[in-house]
Specification:
- The chain is an alpha+beta fold.
- The protein has two helices and six strands, in the order βββαβαββ.
- The chain has a six-stranded mixed β-sheet.
- Strand 2 and strand 3 form a beta hairpin.
- The model has no long low-confidence stretch (mean pLDDT 95).
Length: 105
């Protein structure tokens, strides 16, 4: 639905995409990161951390004030280790429990 207006970040090797996310800008000062994924064979390799840190540093250079993200609750600890803070109650999105998190840049 938002693919035409979003920016997509991809880490890949010569054969395939290994990690990705998309960034939307609901307004000039706030980014929303969505569709974060890491290939199952590359999970726990640091690629998730790499793509999330790259997205945040990129947005910071563009004078974005903050990032919001709907994190799966099972991955909330990972995002907390990157500085994201929970905001609100858990909710179901696409049949999976999520929590809204944010990062001030």
């Amino acid at each position: 639905m938002h693919d035409n207006t979003a920016r997509h970040l991809v880490i890949h090797n010569e054969e395939r995409a290994l990690a990705c996310c998309r960034i939307r800008m609901p307004d000039e000062a706030l980014a929303k990161i969505e569709r974060v994924a890491v290939d199952i064979d590359y999970r726990k390799s640091g690629l998730g951390r790499e793509i999330m840190n790259y997205a945040a540093s990129l947005l910071k250079t563009e004078n974005v004030d903050g990032v919001v993200f709907h994190a799966q609750t099972g991955a909330a600890g990972f995002y907390a280790s990157l500085g994201y803070v929970p905001n609100g109650e858990t909710f179901i999105e696409d049949g999976i429990q999520h929590i809204r998190i944010h990062l001030r840049l």
